[in-house]
Each structure stands twice: as structure tokens, then as C-alpha cells.
Amino acid sequence: RTRTVVSDLVFVAAPLFATWTCWRAHRRDGSRHTGWWWLAAGCLTWAAGSALFAHHELAYGEVPRIPSPADLGYIGYALPVAVGILRFPRAPGTVWSRWRSALDSLVIAGCLLLTSALLVLDPVLNATDLAATRVVALAYPLADVLVASIVLARCVVLPDTRRMVWVPLSL
Length: 171
Hints:
By secondary structure, the chain is mostly helical. It contains 7 helices and no strands. The protein is flat. The chain starts with a helix and ends with a helix.
């Protein structure tokens, strides 16, 4: 029981700490862009999902079924994080460079989606017959593909010294 309590609390505390650090960075850089604010919102969403999961597991002694309210936080993090990454400043470019970046994002997303479909989605979707469970099971990798493709697409246009900061975010 102690292991479960500690594990659940760590999974609530870690995204709360990330929320706090992103919020501090936003207060420091807030006048220049809102990227950190959106990342803080995404981390807070993830923390809410973890808190709901932990509450259910500790109160009822079982892992919540899929779908559960915790899934909203775990899947919902992707949208504010994706917006936050896109809100970070980038070098000024031409219309063509923006089109190239958008096409890079589409190619990366397509590759990640295909890989996800072959390795993750097929076994997950074949494991259940319930429609709601399939929708939620499908939403998890799609949210991850969204965030990873945006991060990797941003890495393509960054100099090598800054790229090493962004690559771990895609994992």
C-alpha cells in the first residue's frame, strides 16, 4: 500500500513541479511570448489527470477503468503543450520557409502515426470491443504523436546547439 501511495503522489507532484517551473519561466518571459504559460497549462492538465487517477486508486483500491475522468487530463495535456511549443519565438522567415516547416510537420506526423499504428494502435484496438475504450485508447497515441511531431518539426529549423534541448521533449 505504501508503494502505491508514494507512486501516485510522485505522479502528481512531478507535473505540479513542472507546472511551477513553467509558470516561473512565463513570469520571466511573459512579455515576449506565451509559450511557457501554455506549457504550464498542459502540465497542470496532466497533474489533474494524475490526481484523479491517484484518488480513484487510493479510495477504491483499484486502477480506474478506461475511460475514466483521469483520461481527460492525460489526453488533454497535448493541446496546450502543442500550442505552447508553437508560441515560442522562432527566427523570422519567408512564406516559403513557413510552408516548408508545415510540410515537415506533416511528414513527421505521418511517420510517427504510421509507426504508432503498427506498434501500438493495432494491438490496443484489437484488445477490446467497447467503443468508448477504443476511442480513449486511440486518443493516447494521437496526442503523443501531435506533441512529438511539433517538437521534432521545430528541431529541424533550430541550430545544433539549441536542438539538443528540444529533442528530449519529443520523447
